[in-house]
């Protein structure tokens, strides 16, 4: 029997790699004779570097950058043997870097993302994959652009301060100092969502609240990003307002399009191709997948739903082992052959609790298989 283990991160608790190892430990107890194939996944948010380093020869490179509030922090990117580099925007600008009381998308900046990209360019990379998800920011990638040499100016010719709120005062963008290496660099934005930049489904109104924005602040940020998009189009010639994925990571998708000429693709597709997920599904008897919480949002392109779709198409049984169940989780049942939630976990016990849930899932599945045969 062959079991494919393909989870994404359990947000705030386990990385995708740690989750895969925990699920494997439980599956091994339930089926000692099984061949286990571990495939940590990402949808473009945290875990992208880990997922791609499992698929291709490369190494981590660490550098000093700024966090969302401008404090120094160590962050790393992946540099592959073929010259490609993978940057997770969440490494220097992720929501997990801030305490709840520090979260304020009006002032949080993507400057560290630009610094990490610059480090990848300095390391010789000519192809970039930027994971666009898990952000604490709502600045449309303005901080990133500034770190790479662009100047975002107000009506008095002064450089704007960091954060999304300042974009309401943007008068013009000077790209004459933009890093020249970007002209010869191919950039792919691996986005975890397909939201446009602005409007009811845009970055500010949908995701601003989880980053600390009140409803009024979210509306102000939405208006600021709309103004930003107008200036971007006028001064760079790039239209970003309605591009699917432009609103990912507080509008970083828009910034990558405007200043790096990036193409935006769903992060799961990028990872699935790199790890050859379709090939690895072939011949599997069971797939175990999971995330921190299975809920109504799972069906909107998250890794668990995409894995389930691919498994179903390949005729392979798939069971989710989520950390917990949230509102609307039942909508995911149509794609799954089983759900075995952990229910309660935290701290150092998280991996053990997940392993126990995986063990239950595999034992139950084997028992059902025996009864059917």
The helix-and-strand class reads alpha/beta
**How many DSSP helices?**
12
Task: Work out the helicity level.
Answer: 25-40%
Shape: elongated
The strand order across the widest sheet is 3-4-5-6-9-10
**Averaged pLDDT, please?**
94
What characterizes the major β-sheet?
6 strands, mixed
- Looking at the structure, the CATH topology of the largest domain is Glycerate kinase, domain 2
Top CATH class of the largest domain: Alpha Beta
- Assign the CATH superfamily of the largest domain: Glycerate kinase, domain 2
Provide the low-confidence segments as ranges.
none
Amino-to-carboxy terminus distance: 15 Å
Secondary structure: number of strands: 15
Word description of this protein:
The chain has twelve helices and 15 strands. The model has no long low-confidence stretch (mean pLDDT 94). The longest helix has 23 residues, at 350-372. Helix content is 35%, strand content 18%. With 373 residues, it is an alpha/beta fold. The protein has a six-stranded mixed beta sheet with strand order 3-4-5-6-9-10. A five-stranded parallel beta sheet has the order 2-1-11-13-15, sandwiched between helices.
């Amino acid at each position: 029997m062959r079991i494919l283990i393909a989870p994404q991160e359990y947000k705030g608790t386990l990385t995708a790699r740690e989750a895969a190892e925990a699920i494997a430990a439980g599956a091994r107890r339930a089926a000692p004779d099984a061949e286990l194939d571990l495939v940590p996944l990402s949808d473009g948010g945290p875990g992208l570097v880990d997922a791609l380093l499992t698929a291709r020869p490369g190494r981590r490179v660490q550098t000093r950058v700024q966090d969302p509030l401008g404090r120094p922090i160590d962050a790393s990117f992946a540099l592959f043997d073929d010259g490609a580099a993978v940057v997770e925007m969440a490494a220097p600008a992720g929501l997990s870097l801030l305490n709840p009381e520090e979260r304020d998308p009006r002032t949080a900046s993507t400057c560290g993302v630009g610094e990490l990209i610059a480090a990848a360019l300095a390391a010789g990379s000519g192809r970039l994959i930027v994971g666009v998800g898990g952000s604490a920011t709502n600045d449309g990638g303005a901080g990133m652009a500034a770190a790479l040499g662009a100047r975002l100016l107000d009506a008095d010719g002064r450089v704007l301060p960091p954060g999304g709120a300042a974009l309401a005062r943007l008068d013009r963008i000077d790209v004459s100092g933009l890093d020249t290496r970007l002209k010869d660099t191919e950039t792919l934005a691996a986005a975890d969502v397909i939201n446009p930049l602005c409007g009811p489904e845009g970055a500010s109104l949908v995701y601003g609240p989880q980053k600390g924005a009140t409803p009024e602040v979210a509306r102000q940020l939405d208006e600021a990003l709309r103004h930003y998009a107008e200036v971007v189009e006028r001064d760079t010639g790039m239209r970003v307002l309605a591009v699917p994925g432009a609103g990912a990571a507080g509008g970083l998708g828009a910034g990558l399009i405007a200043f790096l000429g990036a193409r935006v693709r769903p992060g799961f597709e990028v990872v699935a191709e790199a790890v050859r997920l379709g090939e690895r599904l072939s011949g599997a008897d069971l797939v175990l997948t999971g995330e921190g919480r299975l809920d109504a949002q799972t069906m909107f392109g998250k890794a668990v739903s995409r894995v389930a779709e691919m498994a179903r198409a390949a005729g392979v049984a798939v069971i989710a082992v989520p950390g917990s169940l949230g509102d609307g989780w039942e909508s995911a049942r149509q794609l799954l052959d089983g759900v075995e939630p952990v229910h309660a976990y935290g701290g150092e016990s998280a991996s053990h609790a997940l392993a126990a849930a995986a063990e239950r899932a595999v034992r139950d599945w084997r028992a059902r298989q025996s009864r059917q045969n």
